[in-house]
Structures are given as structure tokens and as C-alpha cells.
Amino acid sequence: MKEPGMTRLGIVLVGLAVVLLPWCAGGLLWLSQAHGIHESIASGEDRDGEAATLAYKGVQVDWTLYPDWEFKPLLGAESAYFVFVFHYTNTGDRAIYLMPSYTLASPGETWQAANEEIASYIEDQVEDDLGVRDEPGLLYSVPAHSTRHYIAVFSQAPDAREFYVDVDIWHDRSLRIRYARDPATSDAGTWNYLGSAWVAKYRCRG
Amino acid sequence: MRLIVKHFGPEWGAAVMGTAAISITMQLASEVARPFSALLYVGLGYYLLATVFFIVVLVPWTLRFFWYPEEVRKDLAHPIRGNFFPTVPISFILAGTGTNKLGPFLFGPTIAYHLGVVFFFVGAAGIFIFGVLLVRAQFLNKDIRVGHANFAWFIPPVSHLVIPVLGACSMDVYWADKALAPVLFMVSMVALGVGLLNFVFVGAAVWHRYTYRGVPPGRMAPTMMIAIAPTAILVVFLMKFAQAIEAGHGSLFGLTLPATFPIIRFASCVLWGFSVWWLVITALFLGHYVTQVGHPKTFAWWAYTFPFEVFVVATGLLSQVVAPLFLRASLEVLNGMVVVVWVVVVFGTLGWLRSGEYFAAAHAEE
């Protein structure tokens, strides 16, 4: 039994509307992002020339921090994030594989892992600003005498005054990076680097 | 309206599944290289479209339970149609997965991650309930025959396998070090056990049918693609579980990333390999159906979408840990094919609706 109603033209029009809708919606969302309607970019911050690069077992670690990176979801309130871009340099003669994990802790807050979703939304702007390419995924190769980059984003509590980030890429130690706001010597919005330290953590039988 | 609800079969959830999974394939494809980064927003577009489909499907599907319970009972007891009931609970799970990955762009992380967990529990409850009902119906059905076996029987086991995917995804994005993590883990592991072992048992039954009774008629042809899904979903689960361990600061319930990751990577490659092989088999039989048996336009064409899309998701996740150049290139090509298949199925469905077959009792027998 033929269902009266839709002509072939009707089918084509409905079909085109359905198949094109996600692309049109996506285009509108992309345009809103590209013009920065929902985001503001905090200025990058390094460690004022301090030779703070650290190396262990042939892996040299450096980083760039964007404190107070503000991201506004389409339907939600704006929030601030710490955006770290880690730069891993392989100083050895053979390629290595890195499988980093990151933890941010601040007083009064629970620990948090890096937020990959927010990182994926902002990575283009970060890459453009630094001229680097973020490595996707859990595990990636760093060729000999080369540097690879990884964006790690953490949400920022509104009243956060200090925090540290543990960078886990070695089996037997982690790199702990400390930052704090110091209103006595700078604007309330400035984060100061307090230094790094190697920490040993228990990791299930060793 | 009542006529539409009466004939609204349990299989309509497959349209939601086949649209929702594209949002994830697009998100993964956007990470490969800079020229593809805009695909993230196309993924958001598919997420929004899938949300519309979800609501449009959920209303008549739910109403049918209250307005036409006898029709629902007949379908549940049917050896082929009954297997499609879990497609709507699966859609809840996919809604949760999409919300976890793309929801933060729309609502912010907090709302997205909490909404994802709500979808987890609702979807898991539905999948477990239908899983038990369908096995009961199958074992008590005296009229079931070998010729009824087909790859649509994979849907109830596969539906259990998507639960740990969302469980691991939820732990990855937010819940790994929260009090809810053990609950997510245990529900996921129970579902993994149910899905994995049922996949083996059901697979044997369906293989028996295909070997000794030949292939089903043409209207069931798309169900062959379903067999690609279980192993692909297992790959997705394993990769997301590794990410959940990473999000748990390198250790989750005593499982450490360095200890578990080699096994995860090895097993993922093996399972992905089976999915690739079955994709080749499906392509061969598609040719056989089109040229010799017949391949009519039916709603079952949606069976080509979600299994293929989850295979692409598995490819994308695997590319992050092994053979990145080859698999990332494959990911982009497969992502394009996913869209082509989806477009063909959308137009095919509209043509099928126009033919009036929606109101016919379409029971594919042997």
C-alpha cells in the first residue's frame, strides 16, 4: 500500500535538510569559535629566563603556562582554566615513547586530572600562539633529539591561590611544579612560579 | 498518531545509534591534523541532530508500551524483532558518551559529566532488563528455529558491551577519583562479562545457521555488518579504560598504567584485526546479496551505520597508540565513508517510509 503524501521532491528536500543540518550547525559553531566570541586568551607566562628546564633519563621537560585561560561554553557560564603546554625533548640517540599523566592539586580542592575535552576545543589557538603541534592520544613517540608538545588543561577554582601539578612520565619519580598567586608583589591575577621538585610516589608494588 | 505509535517497531533506536556515533568519529578525526580540526564542530552538529532523533524516537517508543502493550509483547517474543529493543537503551549510553566528549562545549564540563552519568545508569538499567527478557523469551519460545538465527541476535550482547565504554569514558573525564568510581567500575565489569560471553555463545549459534542453512533473505542482509561491532566495541572499551587509569593519576583500583597498557594494546590490536576481517567478509556478502539474492530497501539498512561507525572509533583510538601514520590516514578515509553510508541510509529510509512499508508487519523469516 502506497502511503499518500511525500513526493520524490519532498523526499529529496527532507533528506537534504537532514544530511546538511549537522554540517550547517557545525559551521555556525565553528564560526563562533573562530571569532573568539566565547573565549579570551590569557597572556602566556614563562619563568622569566630562569633555567628551569629539567631532565631525567634522557627526557628534558619544559613547559609554557597560560594561567586564567577563560573558556565559555555555548550555554554555560565562563570558567577559568590553567593551560599547560609541556615540551618534551628526547636527548638520547633512539626514539622513545611517552605516556604522560598529569595531576593538579590545590589546597581545599580534590585532585584533578587533565581535561582532554577543553584541551580539544582550545588547542588550535594554543598551537597558533606557540607555533607548536599538540600530540593527540595516550602514547606517542618522540624521535631522537626532537621535541614534542602536549596540552594539559585543568579547571581553576575561583578562589585558588596556589597549586601544584605532578607530571608522571617516569616509572620511579614525578616532577612536581608549583605555582602561587602573590598579591603582595604582583597583581592579584598573576601566578608566580615557585619552583619544581622531584617526588617519589608509591605505585602499587614499587 | 496512534497508528504511527502502533507500528513504531523496536528497531528505530538504530537510527539514533547510527547518527550519534558519527559525532565521536568526527571528534577523533578532528585530532589527526590541523586541516581536520573543524570536524570537531561537525561532530557537535551530529550530536545535536542525534539529540533531536533521540527525542523524536523516544516518545512513540515509550508510548507504545502504554497504548499497545500487546504489540510490544508480540515483538518481544519475536525471534528477530525482539532483538532490536535494546537499541533505545543503547542510545542512552551513546547519548552519555557524546555528552561526555562534546557536552562541555555546550554546557560546560560539570553539567556534561553529571548528565553523562545519568545516561549511564538509565541506559544500563534498560540494557540489563531487556537482556534478561530477551534471553527468557528465546529460551521459552517453542517455535524458534535454526533459520531464525541471524546477526541481529548480537544486539542484546553488544548492548551490554557499550555499558563499560561509557563507564570507562565517565571515569576518564571526571569520575576516576570520585566515590562513584567503584560503582561505575563494577556495573561496567558485570556488563562486560555478560556481553563478552554472550557474544561468543550467540556467535556460535549464528555461525551454525550460516553454515548449515545458508544466508538469510535479502532484507536481513545488513545484519551481517553487526558482527563487526562486538570486537570494535571491546577495542573502544580497552582504550577508554587505559585513559581512565591515566585519569586516575596512573592507578585505578590497583591497576597501574605501565602494567596494564601492554596487555591492553596487544588485545586491542587482535580484536581490531577481527573487525577488519569481518568488514571484508561483509563487503563480499554485500556484493553477493546485491547481485544474486536481492537487497531491498528496508529499515534494516541502519545496521550498516552504527557497527561501521564504532569500528571507525576503534580505529581512531587505536591510532593513538599503534601504527599512527597508517591508522590516522585510515581514520580520515573511514570517517568520510561513514558519512557516505549514513547519507545513503537516510535517503533509503525516506524512500522506505514513502513506500508505506512502515505500516506493514515486516517479519523477516528464513
Low-confidence stretches of chain B: 362-366
Tell me the helix content of chain A: 10-25%
Spatial extent as radius of gyration of chain B? 20 Å
Tell me the strand percentage band of chain A: 35-45%
Q: Number of helix segments of chain B?
A: 12
Q: Could you tell me the radius of gyration of chain A in angstroms?
A: 22 Å
Biggest sheet features of chain A: 5 strands, antiparallel
Structure summary, number of beta strands of chain A: 12
SS class of chain A: alpha+beta
Q: What structural category characterises the helix and strand content of chain B?
A: mainly alpha
**How many strand elements of chain B?**
2
Order of helices and strands of chain A: HEEEEEEEHEEEEE
Mean pLDDT of chain A: 82
Average the pLDDT over all residues of chain B and give the rounded result: 92
Stretches of chain A where pLDDT is under 50 for at least 5 consecutive residues are: 35-45
Helix count, DSSP H or I runs of 4 or more residues of chain A: 2
Structure notes:
By secondary structure, chain A is α+β, with helices and mostly antiparallel strands. Chain A has helices at residues 8-34, 116-130, and strands at 39-40, 54-56, 59-71, 79-90, 96-98, 101-105, 112-113, 140-142, 147-155, 162-168, 174-181, 191-199. In chain A, strands 1, 2, 3, 4 and 9 form a 5-stranded antiparallel sheet that branches. In chain A, a hairpin with a 5-residue loop joins strand 10 (162-168) and strand 11 (174-181). Chain A starts with 7 loop residues before the first helix and ends in a 7-residue tail after the last strand. Chain B has helices at residues 2-6, 13-30, 39-67, 69-77, 87-107, 109-140, 155-173, 181-212, 229-247, 257-293, 306-318, 324-354, and strands at 251-252, 255-256. A two-stranded antiparallel sheet of chain B has the order 1-2. Chain B is globular and about 55 Å long. Chains A and B meet through helix 1 and helix 2 of A and helix 2, helix 3, helix 5, helix 6 and helix 9 of B.
